[in-house]
Write a structure and sequence with these properties.
Blueprint lengths: L14 H9 L3 H13 L3 H5 L6 E2 L4 E4 L16 E4 L5 H20 L9 H6 L23 H4 L18 H14 L8 H14 L4 H8 L4 H5 L20
Antiparallel strand pairs: 1-2, 2-3
Length: 245
Amino acid sequence: MRAKRPQRLPVVLSRAEVGALLAALDGVSWIMAMLLYGAGLRLRECLRLRVKDVDFDRNEILVREGKGNKACPELSRRDRVTLLPASVREPLAAHLERVRALHQRDLTAGFGRVQLPDALARKYPNASREWGWQWVVLASRICAPPLKLRSAGGRDPRYGPPQRFHIHESVLQKAIHAATRKARIAKPVGPHTLRHCFATDLLAAGYDIRTVQKLLGHKDVATTMIYTHVLNRGGHGVVSPADRL
């Protein structure tokens, strides 16, 4: 039996550090970082967002197939609903207009497909071309099959016909690492750090832990409880006697 790794406290940034980090980002990287910090998304959840999962009218984001989520019994056990930050609404809407134009050009060129779950692709063979199923953060290039497969109808048996995937996770990882250096933040920061900041900032603002658990999609509230240990209130919320002098 393997020994269990000790659970360590997550790295959390102050509000000022988060602001400096976000100010050092721009474009799609800024939008993605805002969704991680403002909606508590995991990096992979952000990458796999579909256009139809963003509800601008209700200010909500539907996260499909989150990591082990059972917090929303009214949905499937791996789905959850989180908030769409007001501060990212307009930039995200403008970004989606550009994505839509790119998708239209792809359709005109005979492409415009995205990857769908196997069962859905079999049931609705044309759904992969529909606007609602497109990725929110599309890759800049179409993934074409290897040259030796192009003569066989341009199909790659691993991925199907040429299509656009979402951008690679390393795009945001590299952008955040560069922004961390630019903002002169000494802590180790990655995309998941912004999700940690989302949780701690909500708890610090007085939201109850069950609400935070639901937004994060944690199966067990004990997982969410770890953020109570990193709130900026000193050890166990105790005031140092040195500060009482």
